[in-house]
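**Fold tokens**
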Amino acid sequence: MTLEARRVSWRRGGALVLDDVTLRPEPGSTVGLLGPNGSGKSSLLRLLQGIARPDTGVVTLDDTDLSRLRRREIARAVASVTQHADTDAEIVVRDVVRLGRTPHRLAFGGDLSRDERVISDALAHVGLTTKADHLWHTLSGGERQRAHIARALAQEPRELLLDEPTNHLDIRHQLEVLELVAALPVTAIIALHDLNLAAMFCDTVVVLQHGRVIAAGAPDEILTPELIADVYGVRARVTRDDLSGRPTVNFQPGPPVLSRVGVDTA
């Protein structure tokens, strides 16, 4: 059982932003949502979070329509990391992570010692134990992103949704964040712009264009020069990394030239 979108369509402001989209991730896999701005990646994540409902089709969690579940029930299974979560409050990192325990709190308290263990484990998982009592605003961009992931882990989810988690991070922190996410024992669905990061860390990629899924599968099957030219309007040469066997995309200047040559293994 998992989180699924089944033939969902959704209009916002009269515009069709998702059109007959189906997404069925393998449990425990890392799925990359790809496509240019406006292709529907963030909209699909909103539906998967349950904060919006499709006009047609259904999003299910363990075969139950999300619209029939309470927010607390959803939050116990599904956590999200957004692009621009921030605060000006004088709050320490441990208390940011503590917010992830909210879905598990009971009206008359709960197991506070368990909460503290989960929070400490989440901080350790993202390598922020030594920063636990530091003020939020003193963290670097990469540390803040890891703290948000720790907050999501404190929810003890089975499904993790991330919307452009590497935006505004330098290369080192991009790699650290995605390596961390890919190693987590959860199903992760990540909206990404960087095709090479998707190729490195995702088990499956789903390519959206104008709100529709136009391709889905393993990165080495999907990331071809033809698809990149069609979806992004750029020229690219695709090779395989000698060590990992995963594709590497090399962008080239000039208008795209479509050919029948697939992944270059030279």
User: Anything to note?
Assistant: Confidence is low (pLDDT under 50) at residues 260-266. The CA atoms of residues 97 and 151 lie 4 Å apart.
